[in-house]
Amino acid sequence: MSEMTVDNSKRRFLVAMSSAVGGVAALGAAIPFVGSMMPSARALAAGAPVEVDLSKIEPGMKLDVEWRGKPVWVVRRTPEMLGLLAKHDDRLTDPASEVPQQPDYCKNPNRSIKPEIFVVVGICTHLGCAPTFRKEVGPADLGADWPGGWFCPCHGSRFDLAARVFNGSPAPTNLVVPPHKYLSDSMVLIGEDQA
Predict the structure, then answer these.
(1) String of b and e for 131-143 (b: at least 16 CB within 10 Å)?
(2) Could you count the other beta carbons within 10 Å of the beta carbon of residue 93?
(3) Mean pLDDT, rounded, for 74-86
(4) For 42-190, CATH number?
(5) Is 180 a catalytic residue?
(6) Which residues pair with 50 in a beta bridge?
(7) Which of 11, 48, 50, 94 is the most exposed place for a label (fewest CB within 10 A)?
(8) Do 92 and 167 form a contact (C-beta atoms < 8 A)?
(9) Which of 88, 126, 155, 180 is catalytic?
């Protein structure tokens, strides 16, 4: 009877390769499992918070995002835009935002946490149309006294740059400010309170 010899280097190679293949297989099985824990696009639309990168927004510009199936606008207001806010309080229905349509931390003249960044749901409080962003001051079609803001083309509601409704508009109340908080100087999370 002959004695069998064991090739240890071959055995180590086979063990290492089997371990590597097993590791790759385990990783391949783990990726879908971990991915299934992330919220789906449907869940995000249903109400999961939405992160917005503020570095993409130039001064005076608006970024549109979707939260809970609604349009949400994020505007980076300029110092000139902010300066116009206090000049027409006498023409507004609710200048001090007494009707609770914003979180308490946004109940201020700017209706925002940071004055230059404004977050608002883009649905008119009259019949649910989407107002258009009209930031220019005194355009011919809106009149010389137009200070910039939003104009609803459906029925003519007018809102200033803090989305406060002007007297005489069909909309009964200001536009809604959603709950939001800052994750960093350049990132805001819409749909979750600042608490």
Answers:
(1) bebbbeeeeeebe
(2) 17
(3) 92
(4) 2.102.10.10
(5) no
(6) 190
(7) 11
(8) yes
(9) 155
Cβ-proximal residues to 136 (8 Å cutoff; 6+ apart), any chain: 146, 148
The encoded tokens of residue 176 equal: 């809604």
* DSSP H or E segment with residue 68: none
CB-based burial, 57-85: b 16+ in 10 Å, e otherwise: beeeebbebebbeeebbbbbbbeebbebb
Q: How many CB atoms lie within 10 A of CB 128?
A: 10
pLDDT at 29: 80
pLDDT at 101: 83
Q: Are residues 54 and 188 in contact, defined by beta-carbon separation less than 8 angstroms?
A: yes
The sign one gets for the Cα dihedral 98, 102, 106, 112 is negative
- Judged by DSSP in three states, 67 sits in strand
- Mean pLDDT calculated for residue range 115-124: 94
Domain ranges in the chain are: 42-190
Residue 9, both tokens:
């280097």
User: The sheet that has 180-184: what strands, in order across it?
Assistant: 50-53, 187-190, 180-184
